[in-house]
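Troubleshooting log. The previous run stalled partway through. Resubmitting the same two chains, unchanged.
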Amino acid sequence: QKEVEQDPGPLSVPEGAIVSLNCTYSNSAFQYFMWYRQYSRKGPELLMYTYSSGNKEDGRFTAQVDKSSKYISLFIRDSQPSDSATYLCAMSALLSWIQGAQKLVFGQGTRLTINP
Amino acid sequence: NAGVTQTPKFQVLKTGQSMTLQCAQDMNHEYMSWYRQDPGMGLRLIHYSVGAGITDQGEVPNGYNVSRSTTEDFPLRLLSAAPSQTSVYFCASSYSPRGQGGGYTFGSGTRLTVV
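Second attempt completed without errors. Output:
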């Protein structure tokens, strides 16, 4: 079983729709939760990160974490064609107690298309 | 401010050849790491470094070597290329390796094909 599960889609919605992207995880040791956006042939870029359960809002984006259910979500309001990309959830786990190094465990990514 | 720079962007290798993927960052980040991205597998950690002179293995280290002689550079060496190493490789850096998971900056990737 993968530590992080994410529906790969693809997901296609009309412009202006509310988009919901989700990931589930199995490792209770995950400490930080992130969403990355990756455009075609580019590296991932950080969209949101959060530490605790609850909601975090940034403009049209809201990240939601439910640690009790091991479930995270990203909501995109008023979606735009420029939001078309692959969205990756990522979770941070401790690699080394001595160095405090963290590793990111990524979901497979959901390919999202916003149609004008 | 260039961020994380990876070279080359594309490379084709023959089985058994060796090569080095370069990664440099100009943000004075302590923590650097290498990931590979394969269809249906997401990004997987190959090696990481928490500072100059300190490196360790990630989840898929076999066939790869790293070293960190300076804060800025973190090259990834393929010792004897195999078709299974065909992938897109990303280098990432972060301002803090100590208990903070946010703030990773990724390079634009190196697309490697091994024939």
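Takeaways: The interface with chain B takes residues 4, 6, 8, 31-32, 34, 36, 41-46, 49, 88, 90-92, 94-96, 99-104, 106-109 of chain A (CB under 8 Å). The mean pLDDT of chain A is 90.
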